[in-house]
Task: structure prediction
Amino acid sequence: MKRFVIETWGCQMNVHDSEKMAGILRGCGYEPAASAAEADLVLLNTCSVREKAAAKVFSRLGALRRLKRARPSMVLGVCGCVAQVEGETIFRRAPWVDLVMGPRNLAQLGDLLERARRDGRSLSLARDDDPIVFPSGTAARAPGPKAYVTVMEGCNKRCAFCIVPQTRGREVYRDAEAIVAEARALAADGHPEIELLGQNVNAWHHGPDDLASLLHQIDRLPGVRRLRFTTSHPGHLSRSIMEAMRDLPSVCNHLHLPAQSGSDRVLRRMRRGYTRARYLAKIDWLRAAVPDMAFSTDLIVGFPGETEEDFEATLALVRAGGFAQIYAFAYSRRPGTEAATAPDTVPAEVQSERLQRLLAVQEEITARVNASLLGRTFEVLLDGPSRLDEGVVKGRTRCNRIVHLPANPPAARGFLTARILRVHAHSLTGEPVASPSAA
Ligand code: SAM
Result:
């Protein structure tokens, strides 16, 4: 039996792409290995959204070279967004790589492996607007209550900083019937939580359907108790999607809504297509309509031309947004993007100073927001034992907060009600209670 390892970087789409690749490999007779040292096939599923993430791939390839020297029969592949951007260059920079495959070529993995074995090397980067050919039901999903379902591939936005449209191509949408059938099968197979995935998920549409009507169709399926979708663009967050979030029992009260900046001037230069006021108005609407609504966001600091005043507008947005969590990044120049040629770059030391200030402001907000949860009860969907402590299980609330609980008496899986006893920067500690009236 041949054994494989897939090392995954980046977003949820990459995590699910790795599950799809694992499914194909199992179909080809492979089984998972515990580490690269024990594997016959090592695939790196890569992210190129920031320069550091892309650079890590080449340093990992450097480390894997030793394994390849020791066992020349081991097949080494680079997949995902770095593969798409670098293409043939990967073979030149790391000639010990056998296979290079872009994110739109997953379904060909079996053939590419065959070709690599036969010809010594294989490469596939076709990135046209093919309909999604990935066979539903093939993915080897990670164990746990949540299952990812792809609704679309690609991104048609032209955000000035972002390399994703280059790596993942134009948007193509799965039809509602296929998505609903996959969600139905997953729920029947013991996944009470479904998360719909797309780089621009709330732009999904097909025939008469949009994301709101898709949420309605999945909400009705037996066994679906929690429904999430990511990643949303603020410009596509329509009133009908927000109403679905308010009205549908399974749709969770958490939304990841990347703002990127709090300055209208910077948002314009980023070509985000919304203003700070429109962003905040949507958040306010949802907060008023949906009990315990929680938000997380992505923010970029030090985008070319960002002044101290622009940055302070971002700090003000963070204060006004009351986010449960933020993901903050220093702007990273990506080749081929509009901003890559901007002359007015922000020095690295200013970027990092702003990043620290932003994180410090959010730390205060997280502490305040979390303190308001103390003593309250929440429904928790357990997803298994804690990695750090055998005596503890972990799960998530509907508003996407991680909760740790003593392992005894609760089982490691299923739903329970928990009272929050302590709050930390990135998680909560609770105790199970009998009350069925959890938020
Ligand atoms: N479309 C997806 C989304 O909205 O989540 C993918 C974007 S990327 C995986 C996630 C985040 O990375 C973005 O929301 C943005 O904040 C950040 N990002 C993207 N390009 C960046 C760049 N050039 N420099 C720094 N951060 C970047």
Residues 11, 49-50, 155, 161-162, 164, 199-200, 231, 258, 260, 298, 300, 329, 331-332, 334 surround S-adenosylmethionine (CB under 6 Å). The CA atoms of residues 68 and 132 lie 33 Å apart.
